[in-house]
Amino acid sequence: MPVSRTYCADAGTPASLRPPCAARVRTRRLLPFAVATALLALTATTGVAAAAPGPGGKDAPGSGGKDAPGLQEVMFVGNNWDGTADVIKSKGSFEKLGRINVVPDKEERLREIYANPIKLAAFLIIRNGPGEGHDQLVDDMYSTPDGSAMVVSRPSFADVVSIDVGTGELNWRFPVSGFRSDHMAVSPDGRRVAVSASTSNTVHVLDIETGKEAGNFKTGDKPHENVFANGGKHLWNMSIGDVQTDTDDPWLDWTKGDRKITVVDAETFEEVKVIDMRERLDAFGRKDFSDAVRPVAFTPDESKLYFQVSFFNGFFEYDVAADKITREKVLPKNPDTSEDRTTWVNDSRHHGMSMSPEGDKLCIAGTMDDYATVVDRETLEEGPVVTASKPYWATVSGDGKSCVISEAGSDQVSAIDFATGEKTVSVPVGDHPQRVRIAHVPEDWTSPAARD
Hints:
Layout: E1 6-7, E2 22-23, H1 33-43, E3 71-79, E4 84-89, E5 96-101, H2 106-114, H3 117-128, E6 140-143, E7 149-154, E8 159-164, E9 170-175, E10 181-186, E11 192-197, E12 202-207, E13 213-218, E14 223-229, E15 234-239, E16 261-265, E17 271-275, H4 277-284, E18 293-298, E19 304-309, E20 314-319, E21 324-330, E22 353-355, E23 361-366, E24 371-376, E25 386-387, E26 391-396, E27 402-407, E28 412-417, E29 423-428, E30 433-442
Antiparallel strand pairs: 1-2, 3-4, 3-30, 4-5, 6-7, 7-8, 8-9, 10-11, 11-12, 12-13, 14-15, 15-16, 16-17, 18-19, 19-20, 20-21, 22-23, 23-24, 24-25, 26-27, 27-28, 28-29
């Protein structure tokens, strides 16, 4: 069930830099593979740029704290193609409270990119690869502990920035190594934020107030999801390998790169262990499955890890102590979804999962199958299939009663009741919402004047 919409660069882009209007369709490979590969090889030769959720599925409590005086708990919704973040209530009506422009420096960044042939090549690859023909202007977001700023990763601009939620102005900017920033995670105390630099196989850990780098570590190919665990003592990173190639048949899985889970000490950034899911999947009898670990969710006690992999309409259960996969859940396929894997966005089939605070329910975003569903963790029985348009992420509401999904195909977020598995409310947001995070802003917060 494809969604098609005309999309043009907004008025904030200099006229000389605006690309032609593109159709918003489910396709990801708009450059010939050989050209993209050559450009990526070129960009990989450049050096490192100089600096300028809780385990159970809900965002880490350090993003302000529910009882912090003078703050209100909200949700940030990142509108990836729009370059904005909507601020909505974290529960109940999920009413929209305002919007923040996360690319106030857009013209400056574009001038910088277009003046550098190597940066421009990488920028266009992102647009025509993971961006599906659009610039990726916001991936992930968290609030600072005092609720005064939003920290945002911006893939197409290869950076992380802090934006004052009151004025809309930049506090600091950190260019990541390589040419693309991706998923982030905030430490339980809210003081540090980890960001994946996907083209340099690096995770940077930054001071959330100053943007200064506390440290970094190397990962497998294309680091993606980050999760703080063990009370913030450890940081887990999942690398997903190449997801923009057409070598999607199972027998070509080896071409996708070195994919693994890297666990490091969150203070020293020394490697604690590496988990190769290829070996665990083979032992479980799934040699034909991809080992690219996508979104994950820990149980509250961190004894089990649930994870999605590329091309799979379902998920696996991994026993952390036993170091083995223990169960598999296959979820329904949408008969209207093409079985041609090369049409699935960034090798996804299902992308997005969260766990109820009690650890008894999992919420799954069936991205390419256009639905979401709540799964009983004990029995692995799914509840009602809730129709949704390209659901791209799943998180937990502030009161823990609902799973909140982003519907990238219909520009809305929706809440699904964990108890009944039914959709309760949908709220319109900006263009192509993806990440949704619990956050905090001042009690009397309103949108910056520039966005009124």
